[in-house]
Design a protein that fits this description.
Number of helices: 9
Low-confidence stretches: none
Distance between the termini: 7 Å
Order of helices and strands: EEEHEHEHEHEEHEEEHEHEHEEH
Radius of gyration: 18 Å
Number of domains: 2
CATH architecture of the largest domain: 3-Layer(aba) Sandwich
Number of strands: 15
Strand order of the largest sheet: 5-4-1-13-14-15
Shape: globular
């Protein structure tokens, strides 16, 4: 029996701008064995197509962009006509994804009906001021995700959650959240699942493992991202299985299927 493998990206397939060693070969093996694979990433810096292209460029494995779900996709699904236009406090991939999904985007904070926040490595004090004032004027406030950190080869870097927290501190408003483990991302990923069991492979307990557990999927922790020791995982998110890296996934599935 095959099924669907839902994969996080950063810390599982990629680490910084490069690949986790052996990730591409493992994905090729899983495809040959007939598994359906869906990417579910809280990273909103790239469009789904750009995400697929970047993974292919560093691993040699190409995902169908339609099977790549970013938190921007989930965020777009939360918006109705009254929520347009959107001020995207993020890197260009978020605005491009929102536009591709029929969402009007603006650069004018005074006219924004929604402030959408993701990882933005160009974030400035002026950006914080504009976004916060829009929220204080009554704009809807949505975070692509609230991941506090972002794994890189040199260690953890600030994630989107650090930027969201700055706006929350300024405004006293708590953001709605689109990405894992929240329902908007659940709905976007569920629409892409195939028949059979589902395995969730991730590196972050409070997002990836919580996401899989909320959906009733089998959860697998990869030790190549934010967690290096399974003992660090809080009991409520204890994974069903642990792998050192994605390269160990084919052998694990052989054992447990």
């Amino acid at each position: 029996m095959t099924g669907t493998i839902v994969l996080d990206v950063d810390g599982v397939i990629l680490l910084g701008s490069g690949a986790v060693p052996g990730a591409g070969a493992a994905l090729q093996v899983l495809r040959r064995r007939g598994f359906r694979m869906v990417v579910a990433t809280n990273n909103a810096t790239r469009t789904p197509r750009e995400t697929a292209e970047h993974i292919a460029s560093v691993t040699g494995f190409r995902f169908d962009p339609d099977c790549v779900v970013t938190s921007s996709i989930a965020l777009a699904g939360m918006l109705g006509p009254a929520d347009h236009p959107v001020l995207a406090v993020a890197e260009p991939g978020m605005a491009a994804t929102l536009r591709a999904n029929g969402v009007a985007v603006t650069g004018d904070p005074q006219g924004a009906a929604t402030v959408a926040v993701g990882l933005d490595r160009g974030f400035t004090y002026d950006t914080l001021t504009d976004a916060s004032r829009a929220v204080l004027r009554g704009a809807r406030f949505i975070a692509s995700n609230t991941d506090a950190t972002f794994p890189t080869p040199d260690g953890l870097a600030p994630g989107a959650g650090a930027i969201v927290a700055a706006i929350e501190t300024m405004t006293g408003r708590i953001a709605e959240v689109a990405g894992k483990p929240h329902p908007p991302m659940q709905a976007a990923v569920a629409a892409r699942l195939g028949p059979g069991p589902v395995w969730m492979v991730g590196d972050r307990p409070e997002t990836d493992l919580a996401f899989g557990k909320a959906a009733g999927w089998i959860t697998i922790l990869a030790l190549t991202g934010v967690v290096g020791d399974p003992a660090e995982v809080p009991e409520e998110w204890t994974p069903d299985f642990v792998i050192g890296a994605l390269s160990g996934l084919p052998a694990l599935l052989d054992q447990i299927r």
